[in-house]
Amino acid sequence: MNRHRVDSLGPDDEVMPYSDDETDDELEASSEEEPEVMPGVPQPPVEDRPSEMAWKVKANDRPYHQLPEFQKKVFLCIKKSRYSGNDIKTYKYNVLTFLPLNLYEQFKRVANLYFLALLILQIIPDISTLPWYTTLIPLVVVLGVTGIKDLVDDLARHRMDKEINNRKCDVLLDGGFQDLKWRDIQVGDVVRLKKNDFIPADILLLSSSNPNSLTYVETAELDGETNLKFRLGLRVTDEKLQEVHQLAEYNALIECEEPNNRLDKFVGTMLWEGERYPLSLDNMLLRGCKIRNTEACHGLVIFAGGDTKIMRNGGKTRFKRTKIDELMNYMVYTIFVLLILVAAGLAIGHTFWYEEIGADAWYLFDNKNQGASYRGFLSFWGYIIVLNTMVPISLYVSVEVIRLGQSKFINWDLQMYYPDNDTPAKARTTTLNEQLGQIEYIFSDKTGTLTQNIMEFKKCTIAGRSYGDPTTAEGVALDRGRPVDWSWNRQADRKFTFMDHSLVARIRSGKDKDANEFFKLLSLCHTVMVEHKDGELVYQAASPDEGALVTAARNFGYVFLSRTQDTITIKEMEEEEKTYEMLALLDFNSDRKRMSIILKFPDGRIRLYCKGADTVIYERLSPNTRHKETTQTDLDVFANATLRTLCLCYKDITPAEFEAWSRAHKEAQVAMFDRDGALDRVYEQIESNLMLIGASAIEDKLQDGVPETIATLAKADIKIWVLTGDKKETAENIGYSCSLLTDDMQIHYGEDINEKLGSRQAHRRHGPQTSRQGKKKPTEPFFPAPGKNALIITGGWLNEILYEKKKKRRRLRLRRLGKRTPPSNPQDGQPMDDWEKEMRQIDFVDMACECEAVICCRVTPKQKGNVVSLVKKYKKAVTLSIGDGANDVNMIKTADIGVGISGQEGMQAVMSSDYAFAQFRFLQRLLLVHGRWSYIRMCKFLRYFFFKNFAFTLVHFWYSFFNGFSAQVAYEDWFITLYNLAYSSLPVLLVGLLDQDVNDKLCLKFPKLYLPGQQGSLFNYKNFFISLFHGIFISLIIFFIPYGAFLQTMGQDGEAPSDYQSFAVVTASSLIFIVNLQISLDTSYWTFVNCFAVLGSIAIYFGIMFDIHSAGIHVIFPTPFTFTGAASNALRQPYLWLTIILTVGISLLPIICIQFLHKSIWPSVGDKIQRNRKKYEMEMEVEERKKPPTFQRGQRSRRSAYAFSHSRGYADLISSGRSIRLRPSGRGGPQSSIREIPQREAENI
């Protein structure tokens, strides 16, 4: 891709820097392959060296690709073919590997490994005071539930892989086409694709049913765009490979570049019948695209499976974990440390106790000749086992259950269901839900994500008069009108809507020559291709803009019917068809920002029609043109309404003038040096002194609710960056349309950004030397002036600013060898070292984060991922990426959360995403409702879970001071086993699944409720230690109040109830009441299920306790069940019931007081909204009854609304005649004399 610029002027804003989209591995590999540079020996330029094509494909020869020279080592001496098969594997397990791999992954969790070690310790009799089943049963349940969940997830991946790999395709084998599955396709196979087929691999186009192998493809799955692109086969293959027997005899050798991720480039050669033919991207059909408007085509598989460009662009699959997961792991480590310290302290206590008391107590003699230190050592391991419930084994499985439930709620949310294409929201992962409540940055694609990629002709200005608002045929303005009835025009597109009846009336009357000329220009000045299908006209445009303009002309009576290489035929106002001779077509490109066509009218007149951006058209207008000022005013109005505009003009040319220009044009076409520049200069000569007709205004339709969604997310302090491969003007225009950019923002472009960063860098170089290790950020802001700022930066400038420009391979290799010194001149624009490069990146991220909006345009898929990585790295922020095409996969995988827009043709983004839905507007509900609820529920669950386990476990600690630190447990063994599984799990699980402080409507009405999640204020180390001290306090109460009550006490029957088993029953019963009533205090949203869970847990406890304390079960299993009759004996004493009530009351009363004072004196935003919930709900009901106000734009300001979406049209294709000339009757015979421009002559040698 040529870049006509001087380096000092900066990068070309219109060029997407795909050359920088090379993977580092490829760059290193290619650099290392270069020969050593010998000093003194002249070397050819790097660009001119013949590069050996390492990838070789032989047509119709499967054994060729299994030759030893194409084998690569996999492991030790095991080798396999370097050519990938065409099957895709995204699953993790198969039947044989599931059990070992899943157990290996689960035991990578420290907690599971810890409990396995505990289980082994419990088998040792000298250490354990607890039976082995108290650990085995919870561990098996945890591993089983997690394993089943992983199995279900992997089965879904198996189904998706199977669906794709089992698609059918016609493959040429044994002299005929056979119906094979995609997975069975191999490199070198010849395949036949039919209309609407997905392309199964990266394929070299050989021939098609259209003339000259013209094949239309839809690239929605690659880039989200639905407008068609065309691909062409080589002329020689088109002529000789139409029949099956010819394809079967095809034996060409293809030599090309190795598999890579560059979507814009393909370089190779075809060696066939002794001749070499060059190959380019124009000859390739990429996997993921779809065949359109082509009945059949044939191709040769070049890259398959993981080697295809779409798969190479996916980036690395990263294992994503939430912030809460990471925090939870650190807290588990903290608990480990606390556990070891407590166990060590108690073991030391046991050593001293045994020396002072135990050794002299004859009744404790156990016939073991063990010293005090050794007994202390055994006591340490005994307490590790006894206190193991400080590390909750059921924590992880409970978290997984909660996440699974929250994912189901997302899937079942009818307000995120899109009925137009029957697409519900889908949580494709179950591990990231609470992270949705902590998002700080959203990175969004534009085409297909914010927009529908549908253009509609909305307004126009003709001869100084504006049209498009609801108006009667007489020109009377209306508040609300009805669409124009097109029944008078048999060729009209019935889907086209227009509200201004006066324009139709003026055109049909024939009295307004300017209006007729306006639509005649639209029907003639374009590069649209037309197809007649079932009596209907089907337009194929290089961009949706062009299609919308030609469709508008069609409805207003100027119907484009057909074109040949030299003519265009239209039908004017239901009259006879008219054919215009096309003398020249001056195509659009991003520098010219306009296109022109020179036509010879049937009456012999020669006229130039031109359409383009107002900024370039106004410079070329004739001094005699009229309506410049009024048209300019209308353009300002259109720009303020964020419509995309084009100015339309014409110029009459004399035959002599055209002849002179035509000679200059032909000379420029054959120029050997700077041909494009020569053509541009010739175009400038003829495109002058133009007469203005008017301007068109097209709406690039946003998806429903996009501006409102962006405004709501902004109130939640979420910053939105748009990363798009589209042009700068288009991206900026959409920024205004969706309210991301506003008129009161100061917009900074690449040059300004580079200058500010350069000055900061120079200040750092020449300023006082600071500690490089500290990496202190400058305190002064980049934009000290008050007001809002926005950045709009192109991919080229992004590389320039971040020093990401790739060097020539030779320079890179020399730098690796240490032969190139780092730049020392601060003016050379390069970093002094890696530290300075990192500081430059930090500066850019800081500057961007000071802005209200950031738009990165003309960026490659890899650059999208890099921008997301920078924000994650330097801001430590939680990021979300949303897109709909394969070019978004990299950033979707890089971000903490990836969201795919489903329901479009392209599903590649969805397959790589964590969440998927059909419309961008659903994002606010996903984050502000489901994300916030999930975060609050998970935080509340974790706080409570840690509390209840500390309160439960630390009773053993207090008890140890009264049992000689002997690792004796305070509870019954079965109570320890079932406490987390049955007695206290259900209420907290339901809080984690169902709790909500405010309803969904209030969540959306008050986006500020989202802020605690971003700040991480609901679960952190402070909350953890509050839970710890709360647990310590409760454990103190639970132990010492029953202890004091049992001390020197007599029951009603004259028996003392102060035995160990009765004490265990009272402490356990008090604990169950406290933890279940505590979760009741923390529950914000009560349902029947919550109430049932709390009461049911208490009932289950008493039911199981009375059963396992019964004489019957003791008779059957005497060893495990030793508390015979303990519960019934203890709980029949009113004194002990009073003890339980006192313990529960003293435990909960301080908590109730603290919560009351906190909500009264220091209420949070959520507390205030909860307090006034009824009032706000009534206000929302009133608002819903009222008519929603129309969206008001800001103040008017002058900016160009020009935003033409395509880079280059079908002009070369039309001029060459390849799309319209007939196939010669004799294969291999001489070609019909068709004029072709020299640019195409080099294509097929």
Secondary-structure map:
Elements: H1 24-32, E1 55-58, E2 71-75, E3 78-81, H2 98-106, H3 110-122, H4 133-165, E4 168-173, E5 176-181, E6 190-194, E7 202-208, E8 215-218, H5 220-223, E9 228-231, H6 235-240, H7 244-248, E10 253-256, E11 268-272, E12 275-279, E13 284-285, E14 290-292, E15 296-303, H8 309-312, H9 323-356, H10 372-386, H11 394-411, E16 426-427, E17 441-444, E18 451-462, E19 465-467, H12 501-509, H13 513-524, E20 529-533, E21 536-540, H14 544-555, E22 558-563, E23 567-572, E24 577-586, E25 594-600, E26 606-612, H15 614-617, H16 628-640, E27 644-653, H17 655-669, H18 675-686, E28 691-702, H19 706-715, E29 719-723, H20 728-737, E30 745-748, H21 750-766, E31 788-794, H22 795-802, H23 809-816, H24 834-849, E32 853-857, H25 861-875, E33 879-883, H26 889-894, E34 897-901, H27 908-911, E35 915-917, H28 922-960, H29 973-983, H30 985-994, H31 1000-1005, H32 1011-1015, H33 1021-1046, H34 1060-1082, H35 1088-1108, H36 1111-1116, H37 1126-1130, H38 1134-1161, H39 1165-1171, H40 1173-1185, H41 1211-1216, H42 1238-1241
Parallel strand pairs: 17-29, 17-33, 29-32, 30-31, 31-32, 33-34, 34-35
Antiparallel strand pairs: 1-10, 2-3, 4-5, 4-6, 6-15, 7-13, 7-15, 8-9, 8-14, 10-11, 11-12, 16-35, 18-19, 18-28, 20-21, 22-23, 23-24, 24-25, 25-26, 26-27, 27-28
Domain P-type ATPase A: 165-226
Domain P-type ATPase C-terminal: 910-1164
Cofactor: Mg(2+)
